[in-house]
């Protein structure tokens, strides 16, 4: 089973399991992400969370409330182990991301989504529902392949950063 380390905050350097069946967010990308956003005391939603490495990073850096959503029981099992290894708690939701977004009433300060890289259909469906879970001044960060183009017409694109084949797109909802 793969491993990675937390890049900052109170658990910096602690090892986390990643599993061998999905693509975790690279350490350099996580480090850059959390150096660009302030998560201290905020609510954090991770969609397509996998082993929830990004959520653990958010907790390490002071997130107040963290919610992790994924449809894979195997991924969420690793997610639980990672949270236990840090003695932290987060709300873990076993659900299809689209169903979760359609049914939740909660809103978050920061939303991170790392959907399947080439599934433009699921990414666009998720983006269409994203404003429903965002507060007025919320920020969403999409990790995606640089090779795909998406419709961001409902959003203001605040920033774009490239990391090899990966692109982080920072979005605010157009109100």
Automatic annotation (TrEMBL):
A molecular-function term among this protein's GO annotations: 16S rRNA (guanine(966)-N(2))-methyltransferase activity
InterPro entries recorded: DNA_methylase_N6_adenine_CS, RNA_MeTrfase_RsmD, SAM-dependent_MTases_sf
Pfam families found in the cross-reference section: Cons_hypoth95 (PF03602)
Keywords: Methyltransferase, Transferase
Keyword Ribosomal protein tagged: no
Matches recorded under Gene3D superfamilies: Vaccinia Virus protein VP39 (3.40.50.150)
SUPFAM superfamilies assigned to the protein according to its UniProt record, in alphabetical order: S-adenosyl-L-methionine-dependent methyltransferases
PROSITE patterns, A to Z: N6_MTASE (PS00092)
Gene Ontology BP annotations: rRNA base methylation
Keyword Methyltransferase: yes
The name this protein goes by in its record: Methyltransferase
Protein's organism: Thermotoga maritima (strain ATCC 43589 / DSM 3109 / JCM 10099 / NBRC 100826 / MSB8)
Lineage: Bacteria, Thermotogati, Thermotogota, Thermotogae, Thermotogales
């Amino acid at each position: 089973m793969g491993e990675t380390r937390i890049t900052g905050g109170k658990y910096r350097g602690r090892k986390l399991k990643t599993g061998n069946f999905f693509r975790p967010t690279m350490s350099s990308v996580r480090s850059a992400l959390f150096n660009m956003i302030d998560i201290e005391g905020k609510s954090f939603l991770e969609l397509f969370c996998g082993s929830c490495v990004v959520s653990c990073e958010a907790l390490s850096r002071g997130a107040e409330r963290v919610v992790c959503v994924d449809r894979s029981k195997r991924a969420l099992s690793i997610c639980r182990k990672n949270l236990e290894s840090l003695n932290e708690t987060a709300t873990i939701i076993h659900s299809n991301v689209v169903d979760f977004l359609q049914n939740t009433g909660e809103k978050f300060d920061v939303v991170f989504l790392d959907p399947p890289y080439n599934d433009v259909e699921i990414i666009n469906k998720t983006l269409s529902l994203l404003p429903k879970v965002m507060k007025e001044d919320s920020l969403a960060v999409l990790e995606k392949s640089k090779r795909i183009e998406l419709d961001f017409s409902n959003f203001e694109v605040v920033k774009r950063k490239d990391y090899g084949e990966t692109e982080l797109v920072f979005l605010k909802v157009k109100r």
